[in-house]
Amino acid sequence: MKGIIKKIALLLLLTLVILQFVRPDKNESGYESVAYFENETNPSDEIKTILKSKCYDCHSDQTEYPWYAEVAPFSYWISDHVEEGREHFNVSNWKEYSTKKKDHKLEELIEEVEEGEMPLASYTWLHGNITESEKQTLIAWTKQLRLQYSEK
Questions:
Q1: What is the domain range of residue 120?
Q2: Would residue 13 count as lying in a domain?
């Protein structure tokens, strides 16, 4: 029995070492990836700070990776979160969205933040939660912004 446990542990260790050399792609396009969104939506400095600290890592092409993103299996887990977040809403694609889609994405943003679904709990463990004040500021800005798209 001890021999089997040692072999399994050795196999797991070897797999973990190999994974360190096979890395998922990173999502780092820089500021220009959110520039169109910010130019069109004109967020205040306070809103920009909230977006940068609570949203852009998973919902833009501008992810700032923590040090542990270099270590498997965390690198794969983070990569999966970023990919999934960008599938749902990616401000770096704002230019390609129709007016109707922009309005819908903003509606979803409000809903997810109001319901406490965003940011994800797994993100807030290390990056800090969105405060009630930040949440209300973001929601109010987004509701105001929706008027711009729903009237077109």
A1: 25-150
A2: no
Residue 134 placed within a domain:
yes
Flag whether 105 is in a domain.
Answer: yes
- Render each residue's pLDDT in the chain as its tens digit; 152 residues: 777 888 787 877 776 667 677 676 665 655 567 899 999 999 999 999 999 988 898 899 888 877 877 788 888 888 888 888 889 999 999 999 999 999 999 999 999 999 988 887 877 777 778 899 999 999 999 999 999 887 65
Alpha-carbon distance values, 90 to 1, 22, 50, 72, 110 (Å): 50, 26, 16, 25, 15
Does some domain include residue 100? yes
Q: How many domains does the chain have?
A: 1
Q: Which two tokens stand for residue 12?
A: 């797991």
DSSP letter string over the chain? -HHHHHHHHHHHHHHHHHHTTS-PPP-B--THHHHHHHHHH---HHHHHHHHHHTHHHHSSB----GGGGSTTHHHHHHHHHHHHHHH--GGGGGGS-HHHHHHHHHHHHHHHHTT-SS-HHHHHHH-PPPHHHHHHHHHHHHHHHHHHHT-
pLDDT over 90 for what percent of the chain?
43
